[in-house]
Design brief:
single chain, Aldehyde Oxidoreductase, domain 3, four-stranded antiparallel sheet, 5 helices
Length: 188
């Protein structure tokens, strides 16, 4: 079984999980990572956190974009400044909530065409719509490379941002050629 993120959200009212924040800080200290960005990822099952990764880098999946939309903080700029020895103050300006929703293939086959992109782009709160290069064959979902695209949206609350991203992703309609006996991809 593979765990693949289907979305992320950030914004007003979302607080770090205290035990994970403390575990993350301890891990960074143990690894001697005291400078620059760090990406720490856990999967929590049954209230038990499992470490997925810890890396001295910014997060992927457009997470720095979500952070900038929701806080006004340009993480990439600050990491670059830090790398060349510049120390600038970080000023958070709570503005919006932001979310990304990924399009996950549901049917085994070759995805050959997508429609509804312009409609999704015009949806309320949508900042960005991106689709994968087509044709793209899908017979399973095991990594972020198996996703068909994404929508980034903002809102006043995390729920509103997530809802807007989800509504816009539903406007994308995929044409699947070479359907493999119309089998659904496991997990759907």
């Amino acid at each position: 079984m593979h765990s693949v993120e289907v979305g992320h959200v950030t914004g007003k009212g979302i607080e770090p999980v205290p035990q994970l924040e403390e575990k993350g800080k301890r891990l960074l200290d143990l690894m001697g990572l005291r400078f620059g960005a760090a990406h720490i990822e856990f999967i929590v099952r049954g209230n038990v956190p499992y470490l997925v990764e810890i890396n001295p880098r910014l997060a992927g999946d457009c997470i720095p974009d979500l952070v900038e939309l929701s806080t006004g903080i340009d993480m990439v700029e600050h990491v670059m400044d830090q790398a060349v020895g510049e120390r600038k103050s970080v000023t958070k300006s709570s503005r919006l909530s932001a979310a990304i929703q990924f399009a996950i293939p549901k049917i085994k086959g070759t995805y050959v065409k997508v429609s509804g992109v312009e409609e999704a782009k015009k949806s309320n709160g949508v900042i960005s719509v991106s689709v994968a290069a087509l044709p793209m064959h899908a017979d399973h979902v095991s990594s972020s490379y198996d996703r068909l695209g994404y929508v980034i949206a903002t809102g006043d609350t995390p729920d509103e941002a997530s809802g807007r991203a989800e509504q816009a992703i539903q406007k994308l309609r995929w044409e699947v050629g070479n359907i493999e006996a119309a089998h659904l991809i496991r997990g759907e």
